[in-house]
Amino acid sequence: VLCKTRLSNLNLAKPNIADLKVAFYTEQGYLNFEQDFNDWLAQYAKRILQSNESDENRHARMASFNPRYVLRNYLAQEAIDLAEQGDTCMIETLLKLLQNPYTKQAGMEKFEEKRPDWARHKAGCSMLSCSS
């Protein structure tokens, strides 16, 4: 969501990967792809500018193909962990949220963020086996 939102609001006259840096988990991840991504970004901006598509139409089209909310492994695992303790509110929240994944929903901003650091190495959040 972060990358899509930033990409749809990109300054097409002067595209810069720094505008998308917030979507990377680590500085090294950003540095590893900086040049390739900048090259791609320049081509993307050129193509969009050549299409003469309005920003409004581009934003709407991107929003219609890219859900704002996606059931991420860490969210599912958090809901499972809470449910095992008898608290099903996270399951209910996720069910409500995912009924309209393309629509911005008030109070649901935390579900648009990057994976939290605590989930980086937690089983069920980042490490899945073939039998998972």
TrEMBL record:
Q: What InterPro entries does the record point to? A: SelO
List, in alphabetical order, the Gene Ontology terms for molecular function in this entry. Answer: AMPylase activity; ATP binding; metal ion binding
Give the superkingdom in one word.
Bacteria
Say yes or no: keyword Transcription present.
no
Q: Which cofactor does it need?
A: Mg(2+)
UniProt-listed Pfam families: SelO
Q: Which UniProt keywords apply?
A: ATP-binding, Magnesium, Metal-binding, Nucleotide-binding, Nucleotidyltransferase, Transferase
Q: Which PANTHER family does its entry note?
A: PROTEIN ADENYLYLTRANSFERASE SELO, MITOCHONDRIAL
Q: Which family does it belong to?
A: Belongs to the SELO family.
Q: What name does this protein carry?
A: Selenoprotein O
> What is the species listed in this Swiss-Prot or TrEMBL entry?
Methylotenera mobilis
